[in-house]
Amino acid sequence: MAVSDRYVVVKNPDTKQLIFYDFITKQTETIHPDVYPLGLHFLPDGHLLGVGKGTLMKYKLENGKLTTVWTCDGVTDGYSVCTDSHGLIYVSGQNLKSLYIISSSGVLLKTLTHDKLPTVFAGVPSIRDGVIAVPGWGDSKLCLFRVT
Known about the structure:
Strand order of the largest sheet: 1-2-3-4
Shape: globular
Structural class: mainly beta
Distance between the termini: 30 Å
Helix content: under 10%
Radius of gyration: 15 Å
Strand content: over 45%
Number of helices: 0
């Protein structure tokens, strides 16, 4: 699920569809994207990020249509996504000890790996003041990393 000032979007894993609700028009739209995203995140400008099948996508939502703005390949096993105040995008892998850093224009800048990252991520990473919090599932870890 992701929420912006205008929309809320939820995933339907059974049908591989995204369901958008527009707070302004009070309309609901159901969209079947080319790549079903596992992780969703709205940017402050209203664009939607979705990650799935090794790809991060930036979408524009307008008049009930989802248009791809750019894609970034190479986010293997991408599962969840967040951003920082500088516009950098962070994608965690679901079963890999990796965290990907992507520019606001969709360029893969860096892949971070660390043996202390959780084996299986339990949710969306979060960043504040240069510190990334990465929640783990089976190993019950919460890892904190300073980005420099």
